[in-house]
Amino acid sequence: MENPFIFGEPAKGEKFIDRKRELERLRNYIINARNVIIYSPRRFGKTSLILKVLEELKGDIIPIFIDCYSVTSEKDLASRLTKKVLQHYKGKEIWYAVKKLFQNITPKITIETTPSVQIEISYEGVENWEEALDLPQKLALDKGKRVVVVFDEFQELAKFDNLLKLLRSRFQHHDKVSYIFIGSKRHLMEWIFKSKESPFYNFGAHITLKEIPKKEFEIYIQDAFKRGNIKIKEHVVDLILSLTRCHPYYTQRLCFELWYVGTLKKVVDEKDVEKTLSELISDLEDSYLLIWESLTPNQRKALLAVAKGEEDLFSGEFLRKYDFKSPASVQSALRKLVEKELVTKIGEAYKVSDVFMEYWLKKRFLEE
């Protein structure tokens, strides 16, 4: 039997767990022509959620997915968007689409038809490339269907001067398009969509992904091991979810390894969980050391304090205990850790983003 646990790629089909409320909200927003902002720390399953909804609405919408991490310039974004639009035309339709959609701009378009259709597009040297941003609306009007454009890691586009302002000026007129903005850097996403100084202020409905409910995860884990004829008691599942904090990625990662332990023993117990977690952390140590070595002394102290569970990070007692000169120096270190995605701020509290890294920090630096 195939390992029922998955990590490092979107969860699809029966491997998609819960998110019923988020699925319903997102589906309703799209059906009712709303824009949506989704943010959470990395590896919380944002992409899996989006793909699930797009699959459910297949036939009623035209999906376009843009990975903003790989965008290198404003014109590169225009090229990628153009290519995604043209991919919804087949065969001779492509030539029709080029003539109909491109009225005032002429990008360099290379189309190879063998062995399959390959489209290469470039706006280098092309004036008025901004009109390419209207292509989703033109596609929707031409096909008579709502277009859903997903920008994954949208906050990365904020590094290009005036691009957000340009995007807003175009998108606000697209009544046949729903835009979904996904981001993992919460502080940047909140600035883009909640700050009155940002062009995208209040541009859509907000959805924040949290941990998967414990009960839903328990059912999934128990059923998965049962299908493999592997015994796992309820208190062992509780231990797993306690260690991973019900985080989708880390729970799936740990259970993925435990599955192979179980296929040999036909049972998984507490010792297996503890041993497997220890082995995982050991395997990841080299990458954690590289991160640790890149940090300043203040950032290291702040990271250890968060891993240890310190709460009042700006008190005089804390400053003396960790040898910080002032609350401002603590704040600066924490801000950098958040920017590096090593620490997540939830309300006024901080926690280590990587569950396994937290255990590594405790074992390496905090154990007596």
TrEMBL record:
Domain ATPase: 16-249
InterPro entries: ATPase_dom, P-loop_NTPase
One Gene Ontology molecular-function label: ATP binding
Pfam hit, one: ATPase_2
Protein origin, superkingdom: Archaea
Name this protein carries in UniProt: Predicted ATPase
Gene source species: Thermococcus barophilus (strain DSM 11836 / MP)
Taxonomic placement: Archaea, Methanobacteriati, Methanobacteriota, Thermococci, Thermococcales
